[in-house]
Amino acid sequence: MKNHVLPHQRTKILPTIVLLVGALYCLVPVAWVIVASTKSSAELFSTFTFAPGTGLLDNLRDLFAFGDGRFLVWAGNSALYAVAGSAASTLISTLAGYAMAKYDFRGRTVLFYAILAGVLVPGMTLAIPQYLIMSETNLVGGYWSVLLPTLISPFGIYLARVYALSSVPDATLEAARIDGAGEYRIFGSIGLPMMLPGMVTIFMLHFVGTWNNFLLPYIMLSDESKFPITVGLYTLLAKGSSEPALYSLAVVGAAVSVIPLIALLLFLQRFWRLDLLSGGLKG
Amino acid sequence: MTEPIGARRGSRAPYLFVAPAVVLFVAFLAVPIGYAVYLSVRGLRLTGAGIFGTRQEVFVGLDNYARTLTDPEFWAGFGRLALYGLIGVPLTLGLALLFALLLDYAGARGRRFSRTAIFLPYAIPGVTASLLWGFMYLPSTSPFSYLTRELGLGEIPFLTGDGIYPALANVAVWGGVGFNMIIIFTSLRGIPSELSDAARIDGASEWRIAWHVKIPLVAPALVLTGLFALIGTLQVYGEPTTLAPMTTEISQTWVPLMHIYRDAFIRDDLPLASAASVILAVGTLIVSVVLLKVTQKRAFGGMS
């Protein structure tokens, strides 16, 4: 059967074109920013928009020299918020999701509905109240003010619960109990390893979410040396209307910050288990 | 679904497992909501008379809610949000479904490449995406306006007048299609191929198979993506804020979250901003619950 092409497998022109137009649509802005990053400030507004310029090296030098290497500091902050925040959040979500899926304990139902409400009322609408709490506790303006609120991820807990329900068999846990293993050991040596693929997905969803976060750090931080890239680029752009040289910096900064993300995405694509998301719907 | 069995009675393990999540949930979700509700019924009022009067924070009841709900600019923000969402959400979901079906269709070529390319914008922050598209819209750097100028048609008004709605919605569509496409696509791949094969043997066209077999079976994934698109729309903030320096169309109160931000940080009226935050959060919750009810709880099937 595999040797000859079935009628529905023959190449069709229209579907192929539609798909490729979609791909083109998604790639054009990325291609533009990479081309634009080679232009000097003057060329940016004067030459044809997709014509390469002559200023790439100058632009890169300007970008990294700007504010004594502030751009690299922003990149480092983004990485800190995203990596540390996502690692901690994934672990917290996994623990909670595992317990909610595998134990019957008092308050479990209440907790489930609280988590569900948390999924439906996203953190962004709570940014101002979170700011108020942070300023009451004098944490506002520091790294913790951006990190702490992102550690709790109702959606991550929800996904961890779904994953534990579907991939950690009760029988295995029961067998370990009969063998006399304690609950913590069972989690560490059976539950956790079984949940790893789900944890990778939860981590990556959270990573992209925190890397992309704008409102929370924008509200919490005032010291430029603690900004993540999103807030940093925004400040360049906002000042750019009066100082056009900063437009150029914002463009080069965007190009430089987009490239590693794309590389990361291409590399990590195979580890995504997004069926976890659609699989979670069959309840 | 089996009830979780086992775990010795009275074991403290589950409580310890959920403890970090519960503590953080209380500290960064429950307490802020409670504090916002508390602040929302407070307000600064002049007490005492004449030059000896001082401004003090006092209980003002539902004043802040009344002020927010009767503020035409707050509602206008929701109106703009609705227009933006009406363009963006159906386009995002429609294109995501279309591309997912094409990725699942053996007759289309370049599927692997297209899947990666369309998913790519997901990795790009909304602020950066707005910056990129902002330059694609700006008359002096826009390749689209360049083309129409060369053709003698003049510039495309992306950033002026009502053009701002499709322009902003496009940023959301661009960033959202890929992720939703992947969710629908993974769901499509979970459909046993016997179903499509059987329909094919009965002589059904690929269109009919997509419409009558595949789409009904991925309905739960569509509900989920629709829900997230809706929630995402209600909390739009970064995109219009980033585009604002490039256009005169986007005011400080263009969408509800921008309105709240201005009240809190530019006007220093935290009680008013708190009341508006509570309204927005409750509104989001109601919209989500209604959507889930309407779609018969296809997503998030409750406990057990």
Structure in words:
The complex is a heterodimer of chains A (283) and B (304). By secondary structure, chain A is mainly α. In chain A, 73% of the residues lie in helices and 0% in strands. Chain A has a single domain (55-279), classed as MetI-like (MetI-like fold). The relative contact order of chain A is 0.13. With 304 residues, chain B is mainly alpha-helical. Chain B has a domain at 71-254: MetI-like (MetI-like fold), CATH 1.10.3720. Chain B has 13 helices and 2 strands, in the order H-E-E-H-H-H-H-H-H-H-H-H-H-H-H. In chain B, strands 1-2 form a two-stranded antiparallel sheet. Chains A and B meet through helix 1, helix 4, helix 5, helix 6 and helix 7 of A and helix 1, helix 3, helix 4, helix 5 and helix 7 of B.
Topology:
The complex is a heterodimer of chains A (283) and B (304).
Chain A: H1 13-36, H2 41-46, H3 56-65, H4 70-102, H5 108-120, H6 127-136, H7 143-151, H8 154-167, H9 170-178, H10 183-212, H11 215-220, H12 229-240, H13 244-268, H14 275-279
Helix pairs in contact in A: 1-13, 3-13, 4-7, 4-8, 4-10, 5-8, 8-10, 9-10, 12-13
Chain B: H1 13-40, E1 42-47, E2 54-59, H2 63-69, H3 72-103, H4 111-119, H5 126-137, H6 143-150, H7 164-189, H8 193-201, H9 206-217, H10 219-234, H11 238-243, H12 256-266, H13 270-294
Antiparallel strand pairs in B: 1-2
